[in-house]
Design brief:
Layout: H1 6-10, H2 14-23, H3 26-33, H4 38-52, H5 55-58, E1 63-70, E2 78-85, E3 88-92, E4 101-106, H6 107-115, H7 120-125, E5 130-133, H8 135-140
Parallel strand pairs: 1-4
Antiparallel strand pairs: 1-2, 2-3, 4-5
Pfam families: SCP2 (PF02036)
Domain SCP2: 58-146
InterPro entries: SCP2_sterol-bd_dom (IPR003033), SCP2_sterol-bd_dom_sf (IPR036527)
């Protein structure tokens, strides 16, 4: 599968998504994530987040995370809010709570992180991911979700 589109994403599972991100040139992902199609792609990814959440690993974690995805049409950014509390995960594209952690990254970096094809530590160290707030929380996010290994 080489079609990087919202329609393609809605028809595949996490492992296929990882392969799609891995096999699609970065330039193509950047192009798509800079277009009007990005909202549907981001919505698809964030809508899956609660289903990939590992409540058994969350313990008493109670936190709010803002994901700020840059590089949209005309320089736009999109912010999504993930709330983890009482062993549940909810996501919204209209943040209302103060975050304990805010992470800013472009669309390509975001898709590499959520597909497991990018190294979050390396992306942070090279400035591709910028954080504000609890950086320690950022390191624990991968264990809270079933993220395919790229």
């Amino acid at each position: 599968m080489t079609d990087f589109s919202p329609e393609a994403l809605s028809a595949i599972g996490p492992k296929e998504f990882t392969q799609l991100v891995k096999s699609t040139p970065d330039s193509k992902i950047t192009e798509v994530m800079g277009s009007e199609r990005r909202t549907k792609i981001l919505d698809e990814v964030f809508n899956r987040m609660p289903t990939l959440f590992r409540a058994d690993r969350a313990g008493d974690t109670a936190t709010v995370i803002h994901w700020i995805i840059t590089g949209g049409p005309e320089g736009a950014s999109d912010t999504y809010e993930t709330v983890i509390e009482k062993a549940t995960c909810t996501v919204t594209s209209t943040p209302v709570r103060d975050p304990k952690l805010a992470m800013t990254m472009d669309g390509l970096t975001f898709l590499k992180i959520v597909s497991g094809t990018g190294n979050p530590v390396m992306l942070f160290m090279t400035g591709k991911i910028k954080t504000k707030g609890d950086v320690t929380l950022a390191t624990s996010i991968p264990k809270l979700f079933d993220i395919p290994k790229g």
